[in-house]
Design goal:
mainly beta; 60% strand; globular
């Protein structure tokens, strides 16, 4: 049973204010461009008329949708071709603006999971392709800086009987060399999903952690040592989906979401991360920390339970509030194949955006929902 915040019953944290018509939405990436707030939403697939419902079917010749914030709501602004869209990651290098995109597949059956990921750069008027990468079942980009060095991490891979990769299958790390991103390090794991990076401490005592979620081979936390990331700890349970880190009262904490098992809170004891609390059963797909007006919150977005061949998509996702050394359940909200969460402040109000990738009857046409967040 969940621990509930005693004040939760008297407080409604979420109020729906807008829906965005999306199809197989897999991520919501908030960014600001020339002073204007935007969101990028990659889409996995479109429904094919007459085709039986199946979460791995559909037409993956899709576009990434870009919306602009205007007078208290999102309006359609642009599209980019991102077949089988899985992720979009906005980042800057000095004054330059980039959007890294990737998809898991192309085609409408049969499908190819040897695809091309495109890094776009904004030229002041539009997004232009800057660099292309050969990828295999790509899931997520994650950009981060370590001192003056800039990295771009790619989570990818899948295990499908009879499929032999033509493109590199390993999840990997690229480094900016001043002109483009070049290969830096590869990682074990056959079904990569997600990354999280954090730095703690100062000076000679500073430590850099990189967490990698993998669906089949266990998930790992790496520590920067001797000029590369070296394994620190393995979480053996299959079904890894997402991590997040945060600090509180001088302690480093980590949350790990697992689709097949439980989501857990961990505390770093100086040597390893030790589990201290369970936060929900199977189905966890994505995590989002929000530092609100009334405290720190954790959003856990739930995807499916069951199997890809027989999925249950209508689930309840959670919002937890941080209470000194643990999370307490503060609110819940419905998701159907939920995939991502993004929080932002606009016009003095905090909002939460949730992407849903499947309907209750396992169709791809499912709304992305914008909520007012009063936490």
């Amino acid at each position: 049973m969940e621990n509930r915040d005693p004040g939760a019953a008297a407080t409604v944290l979420l109020t729906p204010v807008q829906t965005l018509a999306t199809s197989g939405a897999r991520a919501v990436e908030i960014f600001t461009l020339d002073g204007h707030l935007h969101v990028a939403i990659p889409q996995l697939a479109l429904d094919i008329p007459g085709q039986p419902a199946a979460m791995n079917a559909g037409d993956s010749n899709t576009d990434l949708l870009i919306f602009r914030w205007d007078a208290g709501r999102f309006v359609a602004s642009d599209t980019l071709p991102v077949p089988g869209g899985e992720d979009a990651e906005f980042f800057t290098l000095g004054t330059r603006r980039f959007l890294a995109t990737c998809g898991v597949r192309s085609g409408s059956g049969p499908y190819s999971i040897d695809t091309e990921a495109v890094l776009y750069e904004h030229d002041g008027e539009r997004w232009q392709p800057f660099q292309r990468f050969d990828v295999f079942a790509a899931k997520q980009w994650h950009a981060f800086a370590l001192g003056e060095r800039h990295f771009l991490a790619l989570a990818q891979g899948v295990t499908v009987e009879g499929v032999v990769p033509r493109h590199p299958r390993e999840s990997c790390l690229f480094e900016w060399d001043g002109e483009r991103f070049v290969p830096f390090q590869t990682f074990d794991g056959r079904w990569g999903y997600n990354w999280a990076f954090t730095s703690v401490g100062t000076g000679a005592g500073e430590q850099h952690f990189l967490a990698y979620a993998d669906h089949v081979d266990g998930s790992l936390i790496y520590l920067w040592h001797n000029g590369r990331f070296e394994p620190l700890q393995t979480l053996d349970q299959a079904g890894g989906r997402a991590f997040c880190f945060f600090e509180d009262a001088g302690t480093l904490w980590m949350v790990f979401a697992n689709l097949s098992g439980t989501t857990r809170l961990y505390r770093f004891d100086g040597t390893r991360f030790e589990p201290v609390q369970t936060l929900g059963d199977a189905g966890g797909r994505e995590l989002k920390l929000i530092d609100g007006a009334h405290g720190r919150y954790l959003v856990r977005v739930c995807f499916i339970t069951g199997t890809p061949h027989d999925p249950h998509t209508s689930l309840v996702s959670q919002i937890y509030r941080w209470q000194r050394d643990r999370f307490e359940l503060a609110d819940e909200f419905p998701t159907t194949g939920g995939t991502d969460a993004a929080a932002f402040v606009a016009d003095g109000q905090r909002y939460l955006l949730i992407s849903n990738s499947l309907s209750a009857d396992v169709r791809f046409r499912a709304d992305t929902v914008l909520y007012r967040f009063d936490g």
